[in-house]
Design goal:
By secondary structure, the chain is α/β, with parallel strands linked by helices. It has 16 helices and 17 strands. Helix 2 runs parallel beside helix 5.
């Protein structure tokens, strides 16, 4: 579906609305309270309670998993709302109705309806010492109101940061999805993975079904404890049964269970087979209610296979409590149609340019595994920029073995690390002749393409990564926006 162009007046008003929202405290600057956003949704009539919610948290893979859940629900004929963050190019990407970003006119009208109520709530918050509502809190309330007005049959909502105190958590998810948990945003969530898991487990509500990706044993213990306290079912991805070796499936399954710890969960799900295919991979998934063979997923990397598995189980849990299988043709159509912009996405050929929004060591580990799994380049050049508050060394050390050279740059974000400082860090892991510092991202992209273009562009590849901003800005430069 092609979105019609906006007229000048609508475009102008949309910019004004966006500016009114973005001048507030940014989404990464959280204040651990739900009081402000709860006060706002209450005066809106608690729109988040008007439809069921599938709530998605985790450290990596949240957006891809959310998009897969949405696609499955759409193929089942349901009207969906999808809330994700951050956006790549347009703020309306965060609030999606049945696969399409909310129309500009509807976005503006919803904000205009919200604005006078926001002023009242904010005055009360300031008077009581709670402060102003943030950028993210307003977008959450706006998204929930738009979904209720549409109306949607179900909303798939991605947590912004954490879980317990995230503004999205004023909703009560009937299915709580936990994507892989690792250390990120340590300033806000802590540097111990079990502390982070405790924060993310806060989205689990009474009577929910919990679907979790494969996790570290200490993380699983936290999720089991929270699920046990609330008396809810926990479904866990036990890993890949068929790893391509000569060992039997049973041997693989047993070893995966052992790595995960004692099996005390209500159900276990698994990737039974995974084969590389042109443009993606072909999977057999074991869900809650049966096996689903010959699923073509138009995304690369083993991590995406497991995201697909978790998405499948989440929809099984939502539709029939995990007791009835989904129609195989519906599942096949959904996964074949899934897209995840900015996630190992090819945005140019000759040389190939891939963008990936990996911005922490766990995300880079998945990226590296996917590169080794699905791509063969004669020369692989990295284009890297990141935020100053990230674990830069943890990302660079994993990129070094798979990159021939790396071009260091910066994005337009105010939080971006200075290229000279970043280049000095890169030289601790790469030899001097493999590191190139180019302050301007457009010039850096040209330099990376030149380095990959040693044989007329044939076989060379550029991997642009390190932050969502890198993925977004390279996409825009190459016309993929």
């Amino acid at each position: 579906m092609t979105t019609p162009p906006m007229n000048i007046e609508v475009r102008k008003r949309l910019r004004e609305v966006e500016q009114e929202i973005v001048v507030r405290a940014p989404e990464h600057d959280i204040d651990p309270t739900l009081a402000r956003v709860r006060a706002l949704v209450e005066v809106l009539g608690d729109p988040q309670l008007a439809y069921p919610v599938i709530h998605v948290t985790g450290t990596n893979g949240k957006t891809s998993t959310t998009r897969m859940i949405e696609r499955l629900l759409m193929e089942l004929g349901l009207r969906t709302g999808r809330f994700t963050s951050p956006h790549l190019h347009d703020i309306r990407e965060r609030i999606v109705l049945s696969g399409e970003p909310v129309e500009a006119e509807r976005f503006i009208a919803a904000y205009d309806d919200l604005a006078p109520l926001l002023a009242i709530v904010e005055a009360r918050c300031l008077e009581s010492g709670l402060g102003r509502l943030s950028f993210f809190e307003i977008l959450v309330a706006l998204g929930y109101a738009i979904f209720a007005d549409a109306p949607v049959d179900v909303a798939v909502v991605e947590v912004g940061l954490g879980g317990t105190w995230d503004a999205t958590n004023v909703a009560n998810g009937s299915v709580a999805v936990i994507a892989p948990i690792a250390v990120d945003h340590a300033r806000y969530l802590g540097s111990e993975v079990e502390l982070i898991a405790g924060e993310k487990a806060g989205i689990i509500k009474p009577e929910a079904i919990v679907v979790s990706a494969a996790q570290e044993p200490v993380v699983l213990e936290v999720l089991r404890e929270r699920s046990g306290e609330l008396g809810v079912s926990l479904v866990v991805d036990i890993g890949s049964v068929d790893d391509g070796t000569d060992g039997g499936a049973g041997d693989r399954e047993d070893s995966t269970r052992a790595a995960q710890g004692p099996a005390v969960d209500s159900a276990e799900i698994a990737v039974l087979t995974r084969d590389i295919a042109v443009g993606g991979q072909v999977l057999t998934l074991r869900g809650l209610a049966g096996d689903y063979p010959d699923l073509f997923l138009a995304l690369h990397g083993e991590h995406q296979a497991h995201n697909a598995l978790v998405a499948l189980a989440a929809v099984e849990a939502f539709i029939g409590g995990g007791q009835q299988p989904l129609d195989i043709d519906v599942v096949r159509a959904a996964f074949a149609a899934v897209t995840s912009p900015g996630r190992l996405e090819i945005v140019r050929r000759s040389p190939t340019v891939l963008v990936d929004a990996a911005h922490n060591p766990a995300g880079v580990a998945s990226l590296v595994a996917a590169l080794e799994d699905a791509f063969v380049f004669t020369r692989t050049i990295g284009l890297f920029a990141c935020m100053a508050d990230k674990d830069v060394e943890g990302m660079l050390v994993q990129l070094e073995p798979v990159l021939d050279e790396i071009v260091i740059t910066r994005t337009t974000s105010m939080r971006a690390m200075d290229p000279e400082r970043l280049g000095a860090l890169a030289r601790e892991y790469f030899s001097d002749d493999r590191v190139h510092v180019v302050a301007s991202l457009p010039d850096a992209l040209d330099r990376a393409a030149e380095l990959a273009d040693t044989e007329g562009g044939v076989g060379g590849g550029v991997i642009a990564t390190g932050s969502v901003f890198v993925a977004a800005e390279v996409r825009a430069l190459l016309g993929a926006a």
